[in-house]
Amino acid sequence: MSTRLGVLGHRGYDGLQDVLAELQRLAPQLDLSLFVERGLLDDARDAAPLTEETALDVLLTMGGDGTFLRGARFLRGRQIPIAGLNLGRLGFLTSGSRDQLSTSLHAIARGEFAVERRMALEAHVTDLAGREHYRWRAVNDVVLHKGGFARVLQLRATVDGEEVARYSADGVIAATPTGSTAYSLSAGGPVIVPTVESILLTPVSPHTLAMRPVVLPPTARLTLEVLREATELLITVDGQVGATFGSGETLHVQRSPHPVLIARVDDAGFFFAKLREKLGWGGLADRD
Fold it and tell me: Residue 12's Cα: distance from chain center in Å?
């Protein structure tokens, strides 16, 4: 039976057209049915258009971690493994490079890949009347932060109805273990192994040294409120989408019932090896 492969890509990466051409060349040999997002169909004329309703066995993203995150958002919680082909430099979520395209496609066609389950977050905003305005799903993080003004925010965080802290800060990050190596890391948060399910609460530039990141259980229901009226407040999800945050609104964050499935088609998925390779984890390299 043919393997149904969805394809998303980022045109900002050099060589994407060549990768698409190779993908179309190999697909008939491997009995892959290609479904390509509309923005790439000009370079994939033999493929069918990819929609949010297309039945898929695997989704292939071609770009970097941002493209992978866009792919996860595209699936809207559907339990379809995502194989990330890295065309860039960092690639924490991706599992193969353009030089490994043929190997990756053979593994996908044969179903010979491991699947990692990564915890995701769900977030929504309510107003004073309890009406819901937005709903998002995050692989990395949900951030409540200031826009263009210089004043610090006064924020209140509660977990399961109990007050955790009142922050004077530029913002607050609610991150998954996967997102612990993203924005939260640059804000001073700890690195959490992706299989250790939890919600990481990290203040951004807190105004007091007493404020430190907190690791919450995965069952926690987190709410964030602004205590002092402010303008130009924003919510950003995975660094890609979001909305403004108004006076009297409340941000709610909790674990999503639908994890993100990562298809690992190579042996590069070991977490600490990734840290050493991508971030120089573990100190200076050995010297002669």
Answer: 19
